[in-house]
Design a protein that fits this description.
mainly alpha, 2 domains, 3 helices, binds heme C
Length: 84
């Protein structure tokens, strides 16, 4: 075997390893989305009767916990009332 052949084999091997590495390490998901899905939205501990405008309190209220995501307008899509 001459040096040229050995070099080609080494290069080919390196390429195969590189491609395999890319296939396994490439993130097939959006990390932001995964982070969101891994957390459970807290239940609404109070009645939603007469409290349909969630943001009136949770945008910048003094006592209620302020929502970290006022841009998600349909609150009850994720937050389930624990009582009616
Ligand atoms: C009149 C003000 C007011 C309105 C309107 C209101 N909330 Fe609340 N919310 C509170 C208060 C105060 C708390 C703190 C817990 C308690 O004392 O009941 C709270 C707590 C919560 C929590 C618990 C947060 C945590 O960290 O556990 C969630 C979730 C929540 N509210 C969602 C909602 C949603 C969804 C709506 C709309 C359907 C809404 N709230 C409307 C006052 C309000
Ligand atoms: C796409 C789903 C989704 C929607 C829609 C949504 N939330 Fe949330 N909410 C979550 C998740 C998940 C958490 C827990 C986040 C965390 O622990 O960082 C959360 C946390 C909260 C908390 C607790 C914050 C704290 O510090 O304790 C409040 C209050 C809240 N949301 C209010 C609201 C209000 C008000 C709306 C509507 C304007 C709303 N959410 C819409 C998913 C959602």
């Amino acid at each position: 075997m001459n040096i040229g052949k050995v070099l080609w084999i080494v290069i080919l091997l390196a390429l195969v390893l590189l491609l395999a590495g890319a296939a396994f390490s490439a993130p097939a998901w959006d990390p932001g989305r995964r982070e969101l899905e891994s957390r459970t939205p807290p239940q609404i501990p109070h009645s939603t009767e007469g409290r349909r405008d969630c943001l009136s309190c949770h945008r910048d209220g003094l006592r209620p916990p302020i929502t970290p995501h006022p841009e998600r307008v349909n609150c009850v899509q994720c937050h389930v009332p624990s009582q009616q």
